[in-house]
């Protein structure tokens, strides 16, 4: 947490809270070759609270709200990096600042989900470890995603790699995602 205090003045606790920001490292350049610190301030916190409050009625509504939160988060990433990430990482774009592969995307989405969970904004889901699929030898290209689970134990992917930056992430059961491959999804067409 970063707190900014003006020299020569005094501040109340409320004023200090208003200047506090959470700094989240944003991965880009493929496999987190670069990291840019994204400061999420009180306005961002209020925006995330508002988005997640709209999903407080059911697990399905919360997943829809998580989708909106990811979209907002990616818009903030764009403003921080100044570069709009292309969808579905191009081969040969490794080490290009601002461009993200599935490792970057899943790491950033996971960081957002942890941020939301730490603020108790997730009522129906908890954050799980990231998941992967594909090993080349099984005919599938390796791919990573962020994961949440509902109270019934069903794990859901939150995969922002397929959509353009700021687009809606794929959110569906991990069991289905594990069977799917990058090639059959049409991502590389």
The largest beta-sheet arranges its strands as 3-4-5-6
* Bulk shape: globular
Q: Which percent range describes the beta-strand content?
A: 15-25%
**What's the Cα radius of gyration?**
18 Å
How many strands, what sense, and barrel or not for the largest sheet?
4 strands, antiparallel
Q: Can you tell me the number of structural domains? A: 1
Q: Give the SSE order as H and E letters.
A: HEEHHHEEEEHH
Mean pLDDT: 82
Number of strands: 6
Would you identify the regions where 5 or more consecutive residues have pLDDT less than 50? 1-19
Structural class comes to alpha+beta
Distance between the termini: 42 Å
- How many helices? 6
Helix percent reads 25-40%
Could you characterize what this model shows?
With 189 residues, the chain is an alpha+beta fold. The protein has one domain (15-185). The chain has helices spanning 13-19, 42-53, 59-81, 102-118, 174-179, 182-185; strands spanning 22-28, 34-40, 125-133, 143-150, 155-159, 170-173. A four-stranded antiparallel beta sheet has the order 3-4-5-6. Strands 1-2 form a two-stranded antiparallel sheet. α2 (42-53) packs antiparallel against α3 (59-81). The longest helix has 23 residues, at 59-81. It is globular, with a radius of gyration of 18 Å. The termini are far apart. 30% of the residues are buried. Mean pLDDT is 82; it is low at 1-19.
